[in-house]
Alpha-amylase (Acrocarpospora macrocephala), 663 residues
Amino acid sequence: MRRYKTLIAIASSLIAAMIVIIPRAEAAPAGYGPIVKLWSWNWNSVARECTDVLGPAGYGAVQVSPPSDSMSRGGAVWWDIYQPARYTLTSKFGTEAQFRAMVDACHAAGVKVHADAVINHMTGQGATSYGGYSFSKYDYPGLYSAADFHTPCVINGSDYTNDAWRVQNCELVSLSDLNTGSEYVRDQIAGYLNRLTALGVDGFRIDGAKHINPADLAAIKAKLTGSPYIHQEVIYGAGEPIQPSQYTGIGDVHEFVYGRKMKEQFTGQIRWLSTFGASWGLSVPNDKAVTFIDNHDTERNGSTLNYKYGDTYRLANVFLLSWPYGLPRVFSGFTWSDSEAGPPHNGSGFVTDTDCGNGQWTCFHRQMSGMVGFYRAVEGTSVGNWWDNGDNVIAFSRGSQGWVAINNSGSALSRTFTTGLPAGTYPNVAGTGTVTVAGDGTASVNVPAKSAVAIRVGTTATPSPTPTGGNTATIYYGTSWTTANIHYQPSGGSWTAVPGVAMDETACTGWKKKTINLAAATSLKAAFNNGSGTWDNNGGNDYTIGAGVSRVSGGTVTAGNPCESNGSVSATFSATATTTWGQNVFLVGNLGALGAWNPANAIPLSATAYPVWSATLTLPAGTAVEYKYLKKNSDGTVTWESGANRTFTTPSGSTVTRTDTWR
């Protein structure tokens, strides 16, 4: 729901709960698996993600943005989609045909689809929708007229603690409030939701449910066909007359206190989490709660962690998927510096395809792919073998099915832990490396600073098979990643399990290598990842690579070995820093070894000869190169140098030096 500045202030003032001891044997809701919220992704991108990532990872459902036609601000803001103009499926995310194709693709991948449903109100401004429909605040031709809305009155801040009637019958931030007590209005809303169900939608997130009387919601639900899963946005406020518990008879409820508590603990001391549960002041029971670290509102109003907290945010999500409370939902949106700005879009405001490599989308859910399998493996088990260091390192098991250690401190920790797992060697599904568990269930584990180790039954750490017979493809991948995996599908075959196989063969600086046995196949499709959720899938199209020796860099596939002396160039980039740019300088460009235009993987430059910053990389000879410099700021944003991209072509010789000055 659009929060606006007045509502942000109200929500921020309601953060309070006490910490007390509770039992830890609470069973999580079963049957859906983790939800992922792909917020502001267009339908084509959601379809690809279901096929390539969500299904293979084991996500149970994907929550998509409101599909109805809405007031248009030409893509300038994110919140226009929460001001519906009519119930046709002509949104800025795509057409009805694209929506239907997305639902079908997700179902084929084993992923359910939940639609964000805005049914409390219509618009508060604007006159034209993304679908070209004309309307006014209380007049929506062919759908609603002034008689279908509550008598206009605006919700005041004090109403939240003093007047439940006004909260549910007046206008939220001046949005025209539908009279959901009217049978006609209920029929229109139910008709819209039933139309989505007929297209295959499996559930609904009810936006602004707190502003609808529970009796009205129950009456609308009674008109729905089938049994769609309902989860409702009801923000908890201490002492308010409207409480989340009033809505649990209709469906599950979003547990806003959960994310607030996670921010408190992960910016404090996580050792206290040994008792985390209902008695910490959570607003709905375990079996009715949808839990999350952040959503599109809270990541902007500061009440929770968000992607800008980096490793701290990632570790909080590891806890979300490993601790038994509620049904977890992982959030992926787009990067932002202006909290009002809309997602990447074209000139008409329609959202463009998601590219997880261009720095404009967080694609955070990919970093949690391994933990999704962990959640599924341990579902229904109890917490045991708790250990903490009295500060910011914790570890615990989930029955005999899984074990996790979370290090939220700035120093690595090594010790022998009791895991409760059977003997064996397990891959770390929260990162890289393996853990060997002895016959007594103990394991000697090093947990790096600001990192996590998680192991579970049903996984086995085995070396990649040595290619024998048939066709082979030797693939070099240009990247700055410390580790790289290749997730591939031989022609006529099946995809490897996410994240694929490690590219662990010897190669030269800036390149990873893997030889794959194709048997009778002559080519493969592939995507690459760093093992922690960052992917290069060629803008959603994947790479097609033939048998023989190939190199993949900067979004292109070419033949040859970049590590041979006649096929590569040692390139030194040197830049003189200005006064304001003399810190955290990085290099990014169109080749994998330059970061592939993704600031998250940009190459750090050394300040040994400050104010000259420099880095030496191995690049393919005879290749056109584009690059730029950037500065990483303390708040998680980046500042690019001005002007056009720098360009040059690598020579056939063995060395080249680029000397630049900041623009």
